[in-house]
Amino acid sequence: MSISRREFLASMTGLALLASPTGPARGSVLPSERYALVGNVLPGNRTPPLKNHAVLVDKGHIEAIVPASKVTDRPIVAPSNATILPGIINAHCHRMHSPEERSQRWLRHGVTAIGDTASPLTAMPLLADSPPGTTATAAMAGPMLTPPGGYPLPVHSPEHAMIIRSAKEGRDAVMRLSDLGAGMIKISFEPGPMPKAWPCFDPVTAASICSEARKKGLVIRCHVEDLSGLEPALDAGVHTVEHVPHRWNTGQELRSVLHRTNGKVEPIPYYQSLLERMAHDSVILTPTLDVLSRSVWNGPELHEPVRAYAAMGGRLALGNDFPYRRTEAGMPLREMNLLAMSGISNNEILESATAISAMACGFTDRGVLAPGMTADILMVKGDPLMNLGVLSDPIHIIKDGVFVW
Known about the structure:
Elements: H1 5-16, E1 34-41, E2 50-58, E3 61-67, E4 76-77, E5 82-86, E6 88-93, H2 99-105, E7 111-116, H3 124-128, E8 137-140, E9 144-146, E10 161-163, H4 167-179, E11 184-188, H5 203-215, E12 219-223, H6 230-236, E13 240-242, E14 248-249, E15 254-255, E16 258-261, E17 264-267, H7 269-280, E18 284-286, H8 289-292, H9 300-311, E19 315-316, H10 333-341, H11 346-361, E20 377-381, E21 396-399, E22 402-403
Parallel strand pairs: 1-4, 1-5, 6-7, 7-8, 9-10, 11-12, 12-13, 13-18, 18-19
Antiparallel strand pairs: 1-2, 2-3, 5-20, 14-15, 16-17, 20-21, 21-22
């Protein structure tokens, strides 16, 4: 009978890595409830790597991070050359609604939480069903709020949209989604690439929706790919911008969002000013380069705004917009590699995939390794700061303190 590499590593953890005098006997199964994970720790909150430290876990939560030599009171899991980091969060994806789907397509690849940024009302109970230790936790927005005829109606199923005809309807929709368990709302500011623009919200309705969402403590995420939708979105008060605005349909012509200055390609001044405003207001950008790069727009129109925003200190979340345009579930390494092509360092990419993605999804109990946080943890062999590829084959995946393997 053959076993997988992960099964082999899990068994070797019990045989070779739990042999400390205070740990379980040789050959024991992986511990539960109270244990220590030892290796090089990447807390995920811009704290420098902590070499040879232990993450202490107790009843599903992180108790402390201490030098490994201090651990004397619990079983130890210490694979050789291990790095310990928060579970990865895919902040922008769709359609993996049931706990079983989220387990198979996300959790078992090291993605411990997701942000479902538009789904039918009927999917919301499934997304809310997250038995501890068994599936990727889902933040959900429910259907995208849009005016009559607005995006996503021209291109997607009507069940993914909630039509809003007035400011009152907008407020009522936010309250309804909040009551159904949404931690986010998604609002459309997308005029589209066609000569005739798709309808967009008037400023009063947009501001009313966002104001009500803030009162409810919901994260406000907006869809905008055309630059003409970005300023109205910021005026309304959104928290995140989903996708990279990479074209500019003025109504008379399709203009470039980039220009060349002194031999350097960069966003046009108008775009630069909006990116500066976003950075100043701590608006998160979720570039979704994976899905956008699978289109005719693949090129500097995608990468240069991301590069410019990061240089301004802007915060980037990580999401690949699965399953559109043949994007894949699992560890979103292609999105990470595309961020690297935009000049984002591995350290920044990991922060995007953990702490900042948690913010974009409205999670306050995960995304970093710190006392009191939920124990969603990866152990990988090697150093992801040097090679992000090591994330593709975790030694251990821990969800809510439970070893997935």
